[in-house]
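Order emerges. For instance:

***
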Amino acid sequence: MQLDYLVIAPHPDDAELGMAGAILKFKAEGKKVGVLDLTSGEPTPHGSLEIRAKETAAATEILGLDWRGNLGLPNRSLEPTLEARAKLAGVIRQLRPKWLFAPYWVDAHPDHVAATQLIEAARFWAKLSKTDMPGEPFHPQRIFNYYCVHLKQAAQPAFILDISEFWEKKLASIRCYESQFITGRSTEPPTFIDALRDEAAYWGKTIGTKYGEPFAAREPLGVKGMAEFI
């Protein structure tokens, strides 16, 4: 299978939190989109491997993904090792996505920081020749960065995507992860879900829409003309 876009997430649910709206928008445009979770996300207070697998499957169905996989790296101790780099580069070589999406490179969660370091290194390795990695050499054109919930600083995104049309469906995909965002959490407002809505509404307001998702990029962005801006 060849994808247009591959979203790489440290844990199941990070892709949904950071950019489910974008994923749904891409799918509506006819793009082939996949998600690769680097770890199982376990252990967590109210989860288990079985629960997380069921939750991920439910969210995957809502998003209409063309492919989803899990690299099986260790949760809570994710590191950008050479072994992990080779595993991820092998997946990239086989799926051959035009674009990669990675977590923002600054984060309070060490797994998220390590994930982005790993993704950037694997992107380079994926184009190497004379290697025993599966697939043929391939280099994704761009990496874009989505923001995760553990960021403890004010985001300064490179662009904001209008996801107003897809907000309710994004919310439905996040609600699939009941063990993470509903069970054991306070029901007093503002709830975790309330905070997500308010944040999406804030980003939407900055571009004159109802809801938005922010993205960053280390590399310069190019546009074909001013008409492409909102």
The mean pLDDT is 96. The chain has seven helices and seven strands. The helical segments are 14-28, 49-63, 82-95, 110-125, 167-175, 178-181, 192-206. The two ends are 33 Å apart (CA to CA).
